[in-house]
Fold this protein.
Amino acid sequence: MRLPRPLAVIPTLFLLLVIAGYVAYPLLVMFQQSLLVEGRLSFANYSNLFDPANRGNMEAVWNSVAVSFLSVLFSGIVGTVLAFGLTQIQFPGRALLSRLAIVPIALPPLVGVIAFLFVFGESGILPRLFQTAIGSSTPPLYLSGFTAIVAIHVYSFYVYYYLFVSTALRQIDASILEAATGLGSTPWNTFRKVIIPELRPALVGASILTFMASMASFTAPLLFAGEKRFITLLIYTTKLNGEMSLAAAQSILLTFVAIGFFVALQVSSGRQVKVGRTKGVPRTGTLPLGRGMRIVFISVISSVLLLVLLPLLTIVLISLAREGSWTVQILPGAYTLENYLRLFTDPRILEPIRNSLVMGFVTLLAVILVGVTGAYLITKGVLRRARTLLDVILTLPYAIPGTVIAVSLILAFNVPTPFSGFQVLVGTFWILPLAYFIRLYPLVVRSTTAALEQLDDALLEAGASCGAGPWRRFRRIVLPLIFPGIVSGALLTAISALGEFVSSILLYTYSSRPISVEILSQLRTFNFGAAAAYCVMLLVLILAIVSVANRVAGQKAPARE
């Protein structure tokens, strides 16, 4: 669909302005700052990063990369096993377990980390239980360091593999599996030679998301790293020390590592393994498994999902604990509703919730406006000829860690600029939703693009032949058809914005602190009950948003005129 020239130019200029002013400009300022030492152009910051005598910087990079690769490996194993078991095996309760398997995707990173701290940390419930059981003076087994960080990442990110692989498994044509069985192929050979090639795109896509999320991880290293260095923590510490030029160089290094892996996997995913497919809608099939193997899968799935629920149940339990009643005991000694009552009666405690809701709403409006505009222009609009390049540019901010985005905004908007309305944004309320927007609008771009790809151009041409103008065609034809895609991207945006912590910890002020920062503050003052109550409130808000989104997406599109 071609718009009249003025109507085509306005959204295009708007999109280019957003990319230039709030993505490219801050990154360029950060790169420029990384080359300045005492006001002079210098590569000293980068020399410092790669100096063999300064082992801390490279150690932080290698630790981050190592944890990310381990997170990809073990998340892939857990997610694929769950996907395979819950799609290939019929057993009572499978539908419920399938729903439980996606619970961690609704958890903000900070909530998941705190839940692990309460259950598996050195002072957690299970280590204390083991300590009491064997009569030891110290906990014999608990999670810390690398092991804890990888375990938290697996808990949070296996859902990517589960969702992607489950979808791919349901699309495998039963005739392919039946043909393999008819030719005498064992289940293992069928899995290795038929199913794995079909799953490759799904595995690559999940690996991209997992690696990027692991490299950007800040909360898990903050609470569990101990003396181990990680690049996100290094950037945070450098910024607190006021060494912004060095922090900029560290951020550039982290960006190149994250984007390098992102590009490498994107290129790899383009090398599709071609397998035969039948015409029409494929008939879903399952891999034949023996009774013993079925029992093993069901046992493993049940055990994993029990571990998924345990941290959540612990969060709820601790939220009811009276302050000071949980010190060296296995479980809190006294319970109360006071932690929840204070959330609704104390204005100071309610303020972070209000801040997060306002920031999330502002972010949601911005990402829908920019995401839908960008997706439409590169898919059906005037920018479709440059789609490949613009698709990468529009998606790239999601590959940039939140720490990097925060540092770039600090450096770009600590002085008045045209992009900030000639105001200093650093230290204000609005710097936070801006950071969330930059990080999250690619979610709406991707979900809307996927919906637009299913839209036949003949529908738009038919509307034009009936005399409908560009705006009317978009409103009455395009929007109802892509609405579910917009809602799915908006839902992920709202969940992520409400619990965002990585950018927030670098950008907030006391008056603009969101829920995530307040949770950490309560945790640091050992107000475990209050911190857990905030976590529960955050989960309730997210579940409410999911419910509203499902209701909105389920409504029928209005009748076309």
